[in-house]
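Notes, p. 3: input format for complexes.
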Amino acid sequence: MTDIQLQATWEEILKNLENSLSTRVCNNWLKPLKPIKLTTEMLELGAPNVFTKNWVEKYYLPFLTDSCYEITKAHLEISITNLESTKDTETIYPDELKQQQLKKRNTRVRTKKKATSLAQSNDLFQPTLTEAMQPPSEMTETPLPINPGDKSSLNPKYTFESFVIGNSNSFAHAAALAIAENPAKDYNPFFMYGGVGLGKTHLMHAIGHKILQKHPQKRVLYTTSEKFTNELINSIKDGTSAAFRQKYRNIDVLLVDDVQFLANKERIQEEFFHTFNALKDANKQIILSSDRPPKEIKPLEDRLCSRFEGGLLADVQAPDLETRIAILKKKTLMDNLDVPLDVMTYIASHIDNNVRELEGALTRVVAYASFKHYPVTNELAVDVLKNTITKQETTVKQVDKVINIALIQETVAKYFKLTLADLNGKKRNRNIAFPRQIAMYLAREMTDASLPRIGGNFGGRDHTTVMHAHDKIKKQYQDNPKTASVIDEIRKLITS
Ligand SMILES: Nc1ncnc2c1ncn2[C@@H]1O[C@H](COP(=O)(O)OP(=O)(O)OP(=O)(O)O)[C@@H](O)[C@H]1O
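Output follows (496 residues plus adenosine-5'-triphosphate):
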């Protein structure tokens, strides 16, 4: 049989496998195999590494045998050879491999125990371990190894183009872009932190995409600290630590989300520390995210904490009103949804500290409208979201008028002929700072919103800034008739 015939037969076998296995499994595990020899008795395949060989033998051999029969109508024995040079592997992990060979028979029992005791040392491991004992899951497994240019760990929707920049995330965005342009140059590691649903994951993926656009041969892997943990436990269980290390140390850009889950997991932290060092020493880019800064991840080994802090830290805060509206506008544009601006303003002014929830609210309103064949209106949004939006955030001063921070900001901005961006922005000149303080004062007086919530709506400002503005304007209202009449006039506009 010629090489071309061999290749064509193998391709037929592969194509036929797609009827019984998912594309992802075929792509990750079976397509990397190379046909070496086909006789009437056997098919010899080459695996790129020992891990793939073991994995395919363990889980996919019956599928291969069946598919071979369907194509060749012969009962072939499948033999898989590890194509990776043993010499090279030994240079990298001599101890691991020797140990593996020596302990081959006992490994399974002992490593299973080891994984179990690891798991028992921390409750958080319990579901993780259960998961680890399962056959490969398409959702949790990442391919081994990572191929150059492989984008499969990245969400195609999370790009720089779909990310809205505002005061709350401009620093993190600028840093992310700089790193994407020049990976492993100035900011390594890059550590992003901030509350839930504020765009950290989105930015991480955007970096990955951009790097691959510029350098299509780079190996980029996005993962979470939980996945890292699962894979490590799996590798201990299966005696494949060498393959685990090879995977994680043989990439150009490692993006690890939610590293706060490393807290309290000593053994995982140790492995992560070595992975981190290996990549850093090889001048590879590391990007991390967490819901809190490194110092607040506890307990976290000091050496790991100091490494996390050794690069660039960037916090991502809750977006201000303008950014929230812009995010909704972008989403409607991208998803081709027809939503009036006042509906977006209503949603954005009520859901202010989680973009995921903000997008969810928009989706619910649009879905409900389309399901019922209603037009998307403010009344509909109020109705659909009535259980999501707590009454605390708004005060109904008149029977049919809802007064909220957004309305106050819009009215004040209009009165002083400013843009919302100015009112909520960073500029401090008196013709902007004074209206801003009036708006903060009115927000405090006319709604039940808390000081931090008001501050968050004014470009992510601190509650003490709101307190100061409120006290100052309150005093002026009492002492200065001109200021008092301006405020009364604005108040009337708001309630009218
Ligand atoms: N500035 C933004 N522009 C566009 N979309 C955004 C922005 N910020 C967040 N999102 C969207 O909000 C959703 C949640 O963002 P993401 O998952 O990145 O948050 P996160 O900070 O990683 O949260 P978590 O800590 O829960 O993982 C995503 O759909 C993301 O695309």
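Strands lie at 34-38, 42-47, 77-82, 190-194, 220-224, 253-257, 285-290, 312-316, 395-398, 401-403.
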